[in-house]
Amino acid sequence: MNVRKLGTSGMEITTVGFGAWAVGGGGWAFGWGPQDDDDSIRAIVHAVGNGVNWVDTAGVYGLGHSEEVVGRALKAIPAADRPLVFTKCALVWDPQNPRTPAKRSAAPASLRRDCEASLRRLGVDRIDLFQIHWPDEGGVPAEESWGEMSRFVDEGKVRAIGVSNFGVELLDRCERVRHVDSLQPPFSMIARDSASGLIPWAADHGTGVIVYSPMASGILTESFSPARVTAMAEDDWRRQAPNFNEPALSRNVALRDALRPIAHRHRTTVSAVAVAWVLAWPGVTGAIVGARSPEQVDGWLGGGAVTLTAADLSEIAATVARTGAGSGPVQPGGR
């Protein structure tokens, strides 16, 4: 399994990491429908057993449940083999109304509550990477939020700090307070906008980049089909997402279909090609890839070792242009 340095954090991570969003299960605003906890634990253990050395979760996934399941998985793995644990904070939910979207609160007191709760649910003494999930929406200055995150490092509660879904302006403000160790933006062949400014900013500042949804939340996989959307659980957030509905859906499926010959040439899966594509961009450290079973893990494990050729990348760029799928630069180098 290939590894890369996560910015200047001192951590080396495998180019693919286990994403535990779906592990949170259903019943909340952005759930993926029902999920068996034992299947989740088997998937995490299987990924780690095959060389993956980090797991990414968040307090809000399943309203705490994902972190609890990750904590159970950690206990099932020998201490010497346990992966790095990354989680996220700054989303506050109402337990009485789980289907109501969480509020974005990065007030220092709220962040501290989140940190303590994550440590408890995960069953760890220190979080390896603690990230603000979304920018505050209540007027809290980024400098105050980042100052509190900095204190978590000084207190030994977390090893490194990062942000997710931040723009360049907020990144600059945080960087002036303390170095931003890691950035987590969305990035895939369909959602390419992060390549325009965010990923280059991180490269210029020595900030690691772990991208999420490289398989476009399941679209860029062998088994995806429009019929699967209608079969999704009622509480699966993807049923309402633009990329899973027309007119985007047909364009996205056409892009997926065009990846099959490339996967065949590399003797791998479409999922692995999708992951390899994001890893081909300069500045990207690793990709968060979700799974709900060991079998799904096997579908993308190889993505961290696949090297797409210049011809592959040009073919994909031409296909993106032909299908009109997504937005943003289409080829490493900003084109």
How would you explain this protein's 3D organization?
The protein has a single domain (3-323), classed as NADP-dependent oxidoreductase domain (TIM Barrel). It has helices spanning 37-49, 65-75, 108-122, 142-154, 168-177, 198-205, 226-231, 248-258, 260-265, 270-279, 294-300, 310-323; strands at residues 3-5, 12-14, 16-19, 54-56, 84-89, 91-92, 103-104, 127-132, 158-164, 182-184, 208-212, 286-290. The relative contact order is 0.14. The chain is of the alpha/beta class. The model has no long low-confidence stretch (mean pLDDT 96). It contains twelve helices and twelve strands. It has an eight-stranded parallel β-barrel with strand order 3-4-5-8-9-10-11-12, surrounded by six helices. A two-stranded antiparallel ribbon has the order 1-2. The radius of gyration is 19 Å and the shape is globular.
Placed side by side, the strands forming the largest sheet appear as 3-4-5-8-9-10-11-12
Helix/strand order = EEEHEHEEEHEHEHEHEHHHHEHH
Instruction: Supply the CATH superfamily name.
Output: NADP-dependent oxidoreductase domain
Total discrete domains = 1
The geometry reads as globular
Q: Tell me, what is the CATH class? A: Alpha Beta
CATH topology: TIM Barrel
The class by helix and strand makeup works out as alpha/beta
Note the total helix count.
12
